[in-house]
Amino acid sequence: GNSVTQMEGPVTLSEEAFLTINCTYTATGYPSLFWYVQYPGEGLQLLLKATKADDKGSNKGFEATYRKETTSFHLEKGSVQVSDSAVYFCAAETSGSRLTFGEGTQLTVNP
Amino acid sequence: DTEVTQTPKHLVMGMTNKKSLKCEQHMGHRAMYWYKQKAKKPPELMFVYSYEKLSINESVPSRFSPECPNSSLLNLHLHALQPEDSALYLCASSQVNTEAFFGQGTRLTVV
């Protein structure tokens, strides 16, 4: 079956630090890949996506590149802000419109 | 309009009650979803409707009954729930095989 593995959290950073959250997937074929963000008490918001190998998704300073050779979709941001504190979920879409999520990574950014 | 609207935001119900969760979108999406999310866990897929027909039921107990009255509305009817069913229930919608947009969720507590 399909699965998504995220780096274990939580992650605590100081403001303006560099962020990397690792994500790898196993799937048959080439799924579309997503990063979602969930702020406390809210639903999930789509942060960025990539639908094929070598695509780079980007939004709000976050980036992730679809790497077929390493089956990875790592999330990066050059300079995090306190407002980026949230839970980040990596997800892969497979047949039948199913989303398979990673376990989520709690990010806390301190001023 | 890029919103998925869920009502109510919070719901407390007894184990003998019958209640319904509602979800609405006006983005013209033809796929709609129910997910269940427990604290500190990723969302788990419950049901998928595609073109107003139930296409996926992830072996959800019959005390949860989905309904899709039209292409914009999705309901989840609840009856005889257990305390362990307490969770955040998320609705999402998408065009078929594209990224899903999530609502803010209904925080359900079963007492």
Features:
A: mainly beta; six-stranded mixed β-sheet; four-stranded antiparallel β-sheet; B: 111 residues; 58% strand
Write the layout of secondary structure elements.
The complex is a heterodimer of chains A (111) and B (111).
Chain A: E1 3-6, E2 11-14, E3 19-21, E4 23-26, E5 32-38, E6 44-50, E7 56-59, E8 62-65, E9 75-77, E10 86-94, E11 98-101, E12 105-110
Parallel strand pairs in A: 2-12
Antiparallel strand pairs in A: 1-4, 3-9, 5-6, 5-10, 7-8, 8-9, 10-11, 10-12
Chain B: E1 4-7, E2 10-13, E3 18-25, E4 31-37, E5 44-50, E6 53-57, E7 64-70, E8 73-79, E9 87-94, E10 101-102, E11 106-110
Parallel strand pairs in B: 2-11
Antiparallel strand pairs in B: 1-3, 3-8, 4-5, 4-9, 5-6, 7-8, 9-10, 9-11
Compact description:
Helices cover about 0% and strands about 55% of the residues of chain A. Chain A is mainly beta and about 110 residues long. In chain A, a hairpin with a 2-residue loop joins strand 7 and strand 8 (about 60-65).
Binned, the helix content of chain A reads: under 10%
Major sheet of chain B: 7 strands, mixed
Beta-strand content of chain B: over 45%
Distance between the termini of chain B: 36 Å
Tell me, what's the shape of chain A?
globular
Shape descriptor of chain B? globular
H/E element sequence of chain A? EEEEEEEEEEEE
Which blocks of ≥5 consecutive residues of chain B have pLDDT under 50? none
Q: Which regions of chain A contain 5 or more consecutive residues with pLDDT less than 50?
A: none
List the secondary-structure elements of chain B in sequence, H or E: EEEEEEEEEEE
DSSP, total strands of chain A? 12
Number of strands of chain B: 11
Oligomeric assembly:
heterodimer
